[in-house]
Design brief:
This protein is α/β, with parallel strands linked by helices. It contains eight helices and eight strands, in the order βαβααβαβαβαβαβαβ. The longest helix is centred in the first third of the chain and has 15 residues, at 15-29. The chain is globular, with a radius of gyration of 20 Å.
């Protein structure tokens, strides 16, 4: 039995929720049962969420934490989950997936404190899955199992897809920068737009293509 702990989950809109739902579906197809603990049951991810986690955790099996700071209200309590589970559910193995640990500036030294909390989360987990190569490199010396994340976006062009015609319909030039994802504040779009202004000054025919929806549930 696998219990997923995710700050967002459908019908919430967000990449973490979509990833978790698709992973659960794939595991279900492999006859591996799972359940999910999300915001709908927890409400706010403060210290009380740790109590709910212990109540929901199986006596043995896996608890898989889908960590993204904004989805967990930018609170550090979630980083204590592996420690709490090791003490209360010793036969449970904890896996943590780090989706995006770099969030906007909050106050002086907040970044250092947050990274220490993430390190506690990662080091107290039995295995870590990471989306960012920098996180993988930082964690490999300290963890036995550090795994690159798999994609939840299937490569499935529509029927009759013609690349040249599709690009022409969107006015895509030979020099096009593409951004794929939700328009969340934590994604750094302001920096991308500033850089694109520099590119556009040098290459007036350049285009910026934004692929995705509006802000996800974690930014609302």
């Amino acid at each position: 039995m696998i219990l997923f702990v995710s700050g967002e989950y459908p019908p919430d809109v967000g990449g973490v929720g979509d990833y978790t739902e698709r992973l659960r579906a794939a595991l279900g197809n492999a006859s591996c049962p799972s359940d999910v603990l999300s915001r709908r049951e927890v409400g706010r991810w403060d210290a009380r969420s740790l109590v709910r986690l212990v109540r929901r955790a199986p006596p043995e099996g896996i608890v898989h934490i889908q960590y993204q700071p904004a989805a967990f209200d930018l609170l550090g309590d979630v980083c204590l989950m592996p420690v709490v589970l090791r003490r209360t559910r010793p036969r449970v193995r904890v896996v943590t997936t780090l989706h995006d640990v770099r969030v906007p500036y909050l106050f002086p030294k907040a970044g250092r404190l947050r990274w220490r909390a993430v390190q506690l989360l990662a080091h107290s987990s039995h295995a870590v899955v990471a989306a960012d190569e920098r996180d993988l490199d930082a964690l490999r010396p300290h963890k036995r199992y550090v795994i690159p994340i798999g994609s939840n976006v299937a490569c499935a062009p529509p029927a009759g897809y013609d690349r040249a015609a599709f690009r022409q319909s969107l006015g895509i030039s030979d020099l096009t920068l593409a951004y794929f994802g939700l328009l969340n504040a934590s994604k750094g779009l302001d920096s991308l737009l500033q850089v694109f202004e520099i590119v556009l000054a040098a290459r007036p025919h350049a285009r910026l293509l934004l692929l995705g929806g509006s802000a996800g549930a974690s930014d609302r």
